[in-house]
C-alpha cells in the first residue's frame, strides 16, 4: 500500500501523522502550508473541499482519496486491525464509540466557534471592532465558556477512573480526542486545572510514536500556543 498524507502543520491533521506512527506505516507527507503552494493545488484538483487531513491511498493498482480525520482513523484502524474496536469488552466499546464521535462532533465545533469569533473581531476595522468584540464576549460568557467548562469536567471525571478513554487500551478514540483537548488547554489557564486531563495529556506526550509524529509533522508548539491563546 502506498500512502500520501496532505498535511497542514499545527492543524487537526497532526493526528493522522501520529496515527501512522502508532501503526508503524510507511507514508509520505505532503506539507500544505499555504492555500497556494503546489501540494495544496494538487489536493484541490483531487478533492472538491481540499481539507487537511486528506490521504491518497494506492492499493492493488487502485487509487482513492479519503478525507475527514475520523474516517481516515477508522479506515486505517480497520485495515490494520489495530487501535480500534477489536478486543474491547462491552463497556469499553460503548466508551470507544462515544468518545471517538464526541471529539469531532461535539467538542471540536465549540473550539472552532472560538476561532471564528476571534477571527471576526481581528478582521474587523479597528474603529468598529468593539461590535464583534461585544458579541464575542456575550457569546463566550453566556454559552461557550460554561459549555467548555462542563465538557472539560466530564472528560476529567471520565479519565479519573481509567488510563485511556476506552478503558485500559489505547485506541483511535484517544488520537481523535487529543487535538481538541490539547487546543482547549491552550485557550485559557482555567482549562489547565483538570488533574486527570493533565496526566492524560502527559501520558500521550510520553509515547514515542507521538514524539516522532511531532517532528515529522513539523509541529510548532509556539505557533500552536499563539493560535489558541488569541481565541479565548
Ligand atoms: N472535520 C474535518 C475538518 C477538516 C478541516 O477543516 N481542516 C482544516 C485544518 S484544521 C483545513 O483544512 N483548513 C484549511 C481550509 O479550510 O482551507 C476533519 O477533521 O478532517
Automatic annotation (TrEMBL):
Residues 89-223 form the GST C-terminal domain. Residues 1-84 form the GST N-terminal domain. Gene3D superfamilies: 1.20.1050.10, Glutaredoxin. PROSITE patterns: GST_CTER, GST_NTER. Pfam families: GST_C_3, GST_N_2. This is Glutathione S-transferase. It comes from Acinetobacter tandoii DSM 14970 = CIP 107469. The lineage of its organism: Bacteria, Pseudomonadati, Pseudomonadota, Gammaproteobacteria, Moraxellales.
Amino acid at each position: 500500500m502506498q500512502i500520501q498524507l496532505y498535511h497542514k502543520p499545527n492543524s487537526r491533521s497532526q493526528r493522522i501523522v501520529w496515527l501512522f506512527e502508532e501503526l508503524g506505516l510507511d507514508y509520505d507527507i505532503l506539507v500544505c502550508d499555504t492555500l497556494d503552494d503546489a501540494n495544496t493545488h494538487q489536493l484541490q484538483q483531487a478533492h472538491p473541499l481540499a481539507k487537511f487531513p486528506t490521504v491518497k491511498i494506492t492499493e492493488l493498482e487502485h487509487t482513492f482519496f479519503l478525507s475527514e480525520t475520523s474516517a481516515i482513523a477508522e479506515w486505517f484502524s480497520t485495515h490494520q486491525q489495530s487501535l480500534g474496536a477489536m478486543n474491547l469488552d462491552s463497556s469499553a466499546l460503548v466508551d470507544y464509540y462515544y468518545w471517538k464521535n464526541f471529539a469531532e462532533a461535539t467538542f471540536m465545533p465549540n473550539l472552532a466557534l472560538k476561532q471564528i469569533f476571534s477571527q471576526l473581531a481581528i478582521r474587523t476595522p479597528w474603529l468598529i471592532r468593539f461590535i464583534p468584540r461585544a458579541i464575542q464576549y456575550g457569546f463566550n460568557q453566556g454559552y461557550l465558556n460554561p459549555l467548555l467548562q462542563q465538557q472539560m469536567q466530564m472528560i476529567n471525571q471520565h479519565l479519573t477512573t481509567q488510563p485511556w478513554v476506552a478503558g485500559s487500551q489505547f485506541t483511535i478514540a484517544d488520537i481523535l480526542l487529543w487535538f481538541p483537548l490539547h487546543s482547549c488547554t491552550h485557550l485559557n489557564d482555567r482549562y489547565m486545572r483538570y488533574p486527570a486531563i493533565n496526566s492524560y495529556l502527559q501520558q500521550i506526550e510520553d509515547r514515542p510514536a507521538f514524539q516522532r509524529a511531532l517532528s515529522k509533522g513539523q509541529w510548532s508548539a509556539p505557533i500552536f500556543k499563539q493560535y489558541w491563546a488569541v481565541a479565548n
